[in-house]
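[INFO] parsing input record for GDSL esterase/lipase
[DEBUG] input buffer:
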Amino acid sequence: MAYSSKFSDFSLVLLFLLPFVSIAPSADARAFFIFGDSLVDSGNNNYLATTARADSPPYGVDYPSRRPTGRFSNGLNIPDLIGQKIGLSESPLPYLSPDFNGKKLLIGANFASAGVGILNDTGVQFVNILRMYRQLELFQEYKRRLSGQVGSKQARKLVNQALVLITVGGNDFVNNYYLVPYSARSSQYKLLDYVKFVISEYQRLLMRLYKLGARRVLVTGTGPMGCVPAELAMRGTNGGCSEELQRAASLYNPQLVQMLNGLNKQIGKNVFISANTQRMHSDFVSDPRAFGFVTSQIACCGQGPYNGLGLCTQLSNLCPNRALYAFWDPFHPSEKANRLIVEQIMTGSNEYMHPMNLSTIMAMDSRI
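[DEBUG] output buffer:
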């Protein structure tokens, strides 16, 4: 009888503790937070009054549900694929999703919003989007919500141990400086000075992210902006890439790496990891057949030259086999191209990842 009584008491304690145990992250769990633009937006813009959205077919034609989700892809995007690589059971939900609550907070969150740039005036034509300052405000709000669920100490630990991905910057050129001839920013700055200005503003954002608790941050550069189908259609010269946008990328990306190295030196740790996405993209853009693509110039979904004009809609041209195309729509890589990019993020040499790739980071952190 004494044993039965003790067992009953123990059962009552377990029943009392279960709600708390079920929401506590496991010791080896690693949350994943995503900030940035349409390359990593998983659906936040679905909940905003903006034209920058991907919530209609044929977006999502190859996604597991075969339905559009708000991802600017035929299928999975880069955060989905990185999430799989780091062992997440599911991708972090868009922060604005009504389903983002409870245990979902422990997985991480996606704050990205299509159309945004580093600068607040980038993407003004899209009106209601989550600009970078707002994404960081929502991250603060997330931290408060998480603390209310697991306690402030556990919340701080989860954020400090999380992986963060930030992909932003391309729109500051495509949808700002070069948006129209004689744009406000191009009238204000020569390109070299504009690049320095954008980098300085990005440095402020990244330090703000660090102060909010981020300790492992993957920072992607811009791709070869002048070689996407939209720019081939609008600005390409003799079937080639836009020289001006390619020049912008060649100025911006090295300065980004230099800035990240400086931040790491200032902090005294390798917090910021640079991903040379210009090189990753350029590999399959310059030699698509080596990677199983039939073309890196023509988008799978679109219209006009290179399928590079306008939006991808149900009225657009649509290729039957998305795996043969490096670009899904006029601006965004196909799922297959995203997979190639993520492979380099995971295992790429120092030409692609500096100072180390994500697999090395995971191995190092597992020993801490």
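[INFO] The radius of gyration is 22 Å.
[INFO] shutting down worker
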